[in-house]
Amino acid sequence: MLTIDEQIKEIQEVLRKTPHHKATNGFIGAMRAKIARLKDREIEQSGKRGGGGGGYQVKKQGDATVVIVGPPSAGKSTLINQMTNAESKVAPYAFTTVTVIPGMLKYNEAYIQILDIPGLIEGAKEGKGRGREVLSVARGADLLLIMTDVKRVDAFSGMMDELLGAGIRINENPPKVLIDKKTSGGLDIFSNIKQSIDKETIKEIAREYGIKNGTITLQEKITLERLFDAFSENRVYVPAIFVINKVDEKPDYKEVIDGEYVAISADRGEGVSELIQEIWKALRFITVYLVKPEEDLGMGNPIVMKEGETLKDVALKIGPDFTESKKLVKIWGGGAKFAGQEVSFDTKVKEGMQVRFI
Ligand SMILES: Nc1nc2c(ncn2[C@@H]2O[C@H](COP(=O)(O)OP(=O)(O)OP(=O)(O)O)[C@@H](O)[C@H]2O)c(=O)[nH]1
Ligand SMILES: [Mg+2]
């Protein structure tokens, strides 16, 4: 039996020899889909091999989980020690941290769990340096801090390759592709947008992913990569903040490094409070205030929610019995058309909303 890597190489060889023209588009699309599926299998297998025990399965706690990824010695442990109650070992050599070290940051009434993990190196997705475990922790994050130090800014692109290869999509929305599987009748492709990939190619690719009957509606101009993402079942879409540490070592960094990043000097605590504000923004938290029936309006009982959640989610956060017993909900402040407006439990939360369940 050929290994997955050998199978990928074989298909790449076939692709190399295939001339590109209209008649071969479908074939080329299907071959590339085959490669993407083999890579998916690799991710699934590594999920089974990695992630098990040894301090790598840390329970998610708090309102959100933020994972710090970066090459060895970037200052990840120094940073978690600055932001939380954690005491993660810091030392000037690689792989000081060998398991997941959790810490908790309380900010604006939110409890944000931060996880410090071992360094991420090239070859992680193949298992180097406990890479599979590290990547599986990263997959579970609500937000990633992708961090390096000022003298190794090129490490960002290597880390992005590792994360991409593990099925993690950074600062990307899921593809707007609706898939309605059926049991017979073949495939139908719909789109109101002019696509550059022809319908037959899309069908070939869908079939490669085991989708043989049904309708596929494309609501964006799709690329091959995003089409594979849409059909694959193991993609996660995670927001990230890029962080450059140790800027004390290169005072002229602003002139030489472009792009969007947060600059810090973790061991001096410089830039750390700005970073915490960026984390808060990126997590899209919303604070609502619970007003008990006998209470005056006020900001006494804050509850931290996430954008897109509803008043029903607020009630559920208090408890299932509470949710069961409440029939009405009234709101004031953020999101209310007038004071004490009675609304449905499906109403989305808004910053500053005061809520009374009756
Ligand atoms: N100059 C400077 N050194 C720093 C800064 N932050 C951390 N360091 C040093 O960088 C070295 C590595 O720091 P760690 O926090 O252990 O790095 P890490 O990313 O957790 O490393 P691993 O656990 O090995 O992956 C230590 O010697 C730190 O004192 C900083 O802002 N400036
Ligand atoms: Mg460390």
Automatic annotation (TrEMBL):
One term of GO molecular function: GTPase activity
Family annotation (InterPro entries): Beta-grasp_dom_sf (IPR012675), DRG (IPR045001), G_OBG (IPR031167), GTP-bd (IPR006073), GTP-binding_2 (IPR031662), GTP1-OBG_CS (IPR006074), P-loop_NTPase (IPR027417), Small_GTP-bd (IPR005225)
KW Transmembrane (keyword) present: no
OBG-type G domain location: 64-284
SUPFAM superfamilies for this protein: P-loop containing nucleoside triphosphate hydrolases, TGS-like
The entry's keywords: GTP-binding, Magnesium, Nucleotide-binding
Name of this chain's protein: Conserved GTP-binding protein
Cross-referenced Gene3D superfamilies: 3.10.20.30, 6.10.140.1070, P-loop containing nucleotide triphosphate hydrolases (3.40.50.300)
Keyword Transport: no
